[in-house]
């Protein structure tokens, strides 16, 4: 397929590690102008060395005011990928207010704030993709707060698809099951925990990082030009069981 992303400017949050980092590298290979955002300035320096020409912004997305200030001078964008996210896995009764706020401040408040701040920078016809989760569609034990935050991401995406429609800006979310990033491997390394979930997936495996990146690139590209306001499952058939 032809590369219709060549020359486009795309901002990616969560660019330091995991899926966000891998997406930045793929977009660089596709000859995009990439702007990587992450709170870890050291990881962003590594990204710039690996992908010459990449611009970076170091900011903690859980800080509303600092995020707005850091993004105010961003150039016009053809695409926005809100990938940054966090999770804490523990029983519902044990969650603290601080842990609740930590997850919601990054996973949904951060996505809202970044997108609101950059809305005037989005070119007509741009694409926005927000990282959600299969957990927004099927509850998982120990993921109560994470699940709620990602369900909010799905419906923020649908609402923005309506609001941005007159500008021909598409907004979708991607809903993967477990993806084997470093964080994913840590969360799902215990067979006693991963076994029941794997048994629900017809392919009997978790997703790889490159498979999540493939889907994100698709949603950012013109190949998905009539896909708007959707939550795209990426789960090996989990939902058919």
From TrEMBL:
Gene3D superfamilies: NAD(P)-binding Rossmann-like Domain
Domain of life: Eukaryota
Gene Ontology biological-process annotations: glucose metabolic process; xylulose metabolic process
SUPFAM superfamilies the UniProt entry points to: NAD(P)-binding Rossmann-fold domains
Keywords linked to the UniProt accession: NADP, Oxidoreductase
Subunit organization: Homotetramer.
Name this protein carries in UniProt: L-xylulose reductase
Organism for this UniProt entry: Hermetia illucens (Black soldier fly)
């Amino acid at each position: 397929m032809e590369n219709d992303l060549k020359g486009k400017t795309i901002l990616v949050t969560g660019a330091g590690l995991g899926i966000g980092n891998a997406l930045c590298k793929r977009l660089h290979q596709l000859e995009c102008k990439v702007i990587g955002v992450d709170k870890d300035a050291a990881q962003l320096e590594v990204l710039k060395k690996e992908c010459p020409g990449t611009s970076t912004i170091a900011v903690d997305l859980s800080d509303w005011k600092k995020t707005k200030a850091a993004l105010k001078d961003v150039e016009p964008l053809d695409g926005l990928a809100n990938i940054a996210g966090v999770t804490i896995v523990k029983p519902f009764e044990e969650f603290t207010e601080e842990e609740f706020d930590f997850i919601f401040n990054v996973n949904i408040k951060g996505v809202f704030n970044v997108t609101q701040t950059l809305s005037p920078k989005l070119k007509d016809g741009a694409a926005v993709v927000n990282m959600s989760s299969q957990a927004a569609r099927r509850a998982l034990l120990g993921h109560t707060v994470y699940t709620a935050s990602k369900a909010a991401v799905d419906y923020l995406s649908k609402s923005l698809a309506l609001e941005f429609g007159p500008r021909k800006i598409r907004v979708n979310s991607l809903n993967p099951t477990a993806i084997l990033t470093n964080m994913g491997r840590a969360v799902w390394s215990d067979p006693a925990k991963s076994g029941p979930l794997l048994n629900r997936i017809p392919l009997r495996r978790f997703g790889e990082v490159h498979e999540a990146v493939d889907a994100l690139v698709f949603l950012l590209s013109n190949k998905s030009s009539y896909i708007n306001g959707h939550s795209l499952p990426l789960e090996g058939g989990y939902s058919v069981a």
